[in-house]
Amino acid sequence: MEIRRAIEEASIxxxxxxxxxxxxxxxxxxxxxxTLLPPKEKVHVYGDGNVKVIFMDxxxxxxxxxxxxxDPRALNKTIYLRPPENILSQNELIAKxxxxxxxxxxxxxxxSDEFLASMEDTCLVGTMVL
Length: 130
What we know:
With about 130 residues, this protein is an alpha/beta fold. Strands 2-4-6 form a 3-stranded mixed beta sheet. The chain contains 5 helices and 7 strands; from the N terminus they run αββαββαββαβα. The longest helix is centred in the C-terminal third of the chain and has 12 residues, at about 90-100. GO terms for molecular function: pinoresinol reductase activity. It holds the Pfam family NmrA.
């Protein structure tokens, strides 16, 4: 929000593209942190696992981003990429994996407060990346 405010206050022409989650990073590992591989026996479920997110293919995001460059309708706007078929909860993602793989994973719940506390030690929380 700080970066957005600074851009808008400086009257810099802009277009924001809101794509939520990159599929290649979050789908193969069933949204597990610190790995890109799918779990084999156990899966961490964040909160109750029912929060919906939008999984977007990176190439699709790039296409929309490039197309917005010369489109005057996108100037000083936010483009939200939200295809309905890409909106899933972590539980739904895990269920799809279990159906495809034929395996049932042990679900280990991670309460929201524990998850947020674990993020405090990372360099992404409380910093501004430019």
